[in-house]
Amino acid sequence: MRRKVSVEELAKIKDAMDKETIVRVFKRYKALYLYLSGMIGSDVAKQTGITVNTICNLYKKYQSAGLSGIPDKKISGRPVRLTLEERDTLKELIMKQHPFDVGVSRDFNWTAGLIANYIKREYGYTYSIRGITGLLARMGFYYKYPIYVLAD
Matching Pfam families, A to Z (predicted)? Predict the structure, then answer.
């Protein structure tokens, strides 16, 4: 089956492919380009590593939405458990108090595990260490290893 596309359309796809930095989306543009250039689906699949079914779906998306239908859509993910006020309170607590001040531990430094314990105790939500580090990153915190200095 011959697909009818103009040279200009192929040039637009090629240009989008050349500008793309995400490998997954680049492969989609390349598969679409090859498919619209006249290559059969099975050959495109072998060359790009994308299934024939996906190539056909890309072609349908391109027909209905143009190039804007090819990249991934934003995925919302799981809703945030802590409210904005609770996150603000937690941020203030981490910045201004030590774990021993709030009865979480006898330590002077907050760790992801201690923060998870505090959230479980105060708000009733269970977080993994990875979940806490993601939450902290979204709140503007970053890892910093402590530097120990000998006292004079």
Answer: HTH_32 (PF13565)
